[in-house]
Amino acid sequence: MAQVDGQTLLMAVQAVRAQIRLLSEEVNRAGDDDDLTDREDLLAGYVRAADALRVAYEAEERDSSNLPPYDLLASG
Known about the structure:
This protein is mainly α. Helices cover 75% and strands 0% of the residues.
């Protein structure tokens, strides 16, 4: 796996979580006649990315005391 510093992981986690929120809102706001297949597929991809980033972030968090706990990021 590529080496990514903690600050970059922190920013990636925040960006992916923001995109998940936006896409979730779009899906939830859509009407019954809207075709959401592409949006739902994109949302699923971001959720998978968030899971992978969580694993990487938690590994980096164990090695660095400068990062906020992942749970704190996830609640924000």
